[in-house]
Amino acid sequence: CASSYRYVCGFSSSSVGGMVIDGCTYTLIPEEASVAVANDQCVRMGASLASVHSDEAATAMWAAMLVASPHSDPTRTTNGAWIGYHDMHAEGCAAGCATACVDYGFIWTDGSPSDYEYWSNGEPNDWNGSAADCTGDSSDGGYEDCTEIRNNRGGQWNDASCDATGRWFWCGSCPMHNRNPDTYEVVDTARSMPMAEFECSSR
């Protein structure tokens, strides 16, 4: 994914079993996986890693996790779960950093608008093992580019390493957000896959 090539953007002018909220269908998959493996499985189901667009959806997803992944502490779950929010394209500004940086922002894998966030206090911080990564480029070890619904924060979000396992994952299909393209554009500028995805979402 780090190699740079020309890329194709898809645009739309216009289900997976589960709960329907805000026009999106959400399905919790009780299997532990990395983000790449999780997203591949969602795509095979005709969906993508889920995007979240309201308090209603975030609350319902957490309620479902409390039932599906019970813990001896009723305020938490055994497993957290991936959703499709990421900043693999470029590091932005970590929470709690005074260092000036460019905030590229997180994007959804399904291409839907970044119109809602539910970060836990102090997140996203691109944690590098002992502190937040404030360089804006992962040069001091921070590689938390993907988002999980944490198992102990009341459904709030945390950024984590995309390669980490131990999380379940949410698949989502949001046809109202025009996820399925019917128009394509070849872009001649060479980009890595994450940056190409980011630029397509910004077009």
What features would you describe in this structure?
This protein has 203 residues and is α+β, with helices and mostly antiparallel strands. Helices cover 17% and strands 24% of the residues. The strands form two sheets. Strands 2, 3, 4, 5, 6, 7, 8 and 9 form an eight-stranded mixed sheet that branches. Strands 1-10 form a two-stranded antiparallel sheet.
- Runs in which pLDDT lies below 50 for 5 or more consecutive residues are 12-16
Structural class: alpha+beta
The count of helical stretches stands at: 3
Q: Distance between the terminal alpha carbons, to the nearest Å?
A: 21 Å
Please report the total strand number as a whole number: 10
- Portion of residues in helices? 10-25%
Rg estimate, integer Å = 17 Å
Shape: globular
Biggest sheet architecture: 8 strands, mixed
Beta fraction: 15-25%
Series of H and E elements: EEEHEHEEEEEEH
- The overall average pLDDT, rounded, is 81
Question: Quick recap of the structure?
Answer:
This protein has 203 residues and is an alpha+beta fold.
SSE map:
Layout lengths: L4 E7 L7 E3 L2 E6 L5 H10 L3 E2 L5 H14 L12 E6 L20 E2 L37 E4 L7 E4 L7 E6 L9 E9 L1 H10 L1
Parallel strand pairs: 5-9
Antiparallel strand pairs: 1-10, 2-3, 3-9, 4-9, 5-6, 5-7, 7-8
Could you name the key traits of this structure?
single chain, 203 residues, alpha+beta, eight-stranded mixed beta sheet, 3 helices, globular
